[in-house]
Amino acid sequence: MKTTWCYELMGVALFLGSTQSIEGTGSVISHGSLLVAVPTSSGLVVCTDKREWNRIGGASDTETKIYPIDSKAAFTITGSVAVLDPSSLLPIFSVKELATKCLKAETKRPLAERIHNLPKVLNAAYKKFEKANKGKLEQSSGAIDDVITSITVWYASGDRVHVSQIQLHNNGGWEFSYKDPSEEFHRKFYIEGQTEFIVAAIRNSDPRFKAFKTDPDIQTVWTSNDPSKVPHSLAIRFARKIILATNESHHLVSVTPTMVSAESDCSLMNPSSGFEWLK
Length: 279
What we know:
Layout: E1 12-16, E2 28-31, E3 34-40, E4 43-49, E5 52-54, E6 58-60, E7 67-70, E8 73-84, E9 91-94, H1 95-105, H2 111-131, E10 147-156, E11 161-169, E12 176-179, H3 182-187, E13 189-193, H4 196-203, H5 210-213, H6 216-222, H7 232-249, E14 264-270, E15 274-278
Parallel strand pairs: 1-13
Antiparallel strand pairs: 2-8, 3-4, 3-13, 4-14, 5-6, 7-8, 8-9, 8-10, 10-11, 11-12, 14-15
Helix pairs in contact: 1-2
């Protein structure tokens, strides 16, 4: 059966995370930006950009957003990742620091148990932080869903790559919750973060981005009936091109700051050999 662009949204999960958001108490929000994950014949390829942004310090493109936990596990974060002190720009509440402590430092319990316990740890710390009136993680008014912060954990176990997500939702409860999207990540690629450009270029077929949409690497992966059969080298090119194009063209589709760098980091999680960095 011929695959055409009319099926473009059946093979991908698009998630617009938190972008520009400043808490009115004077604290400053620090943001993650873009994640691209592709199931391949070698395992799960995950690429992220390198930009962190806040309204005082602006953009910094030096952050490695893929955080290895051990030789067979890693995590990343998109959306609002920390609340910063406006004077020092040091974190006064950090999702990254709490996740690192829970997932990486506390090694006495199995990883799966640590992952399931992470929402409880984050909720306890965040409620305490909110009661102290020091600020709040907030969602952009331009977001298309209710997710403020999203932690994605992926790990190799039992000849399979498992994926877990812990997310903070703006749904009235303001609590971090757990879900297991492993099957979704095995069937199709996944893009999360600042996705306005991708939506304009692919779903809305903006003619300004025709060259991007018809790029052979983009088209091959996007229209594939089974992305898990693509080689990891193609998945890397696909992910890097999405990240670079977002950096170059976000300003053409949105008035919000570009929170995606041109540079990116990529990794592979093989079900047997585990985690490795990719060039």
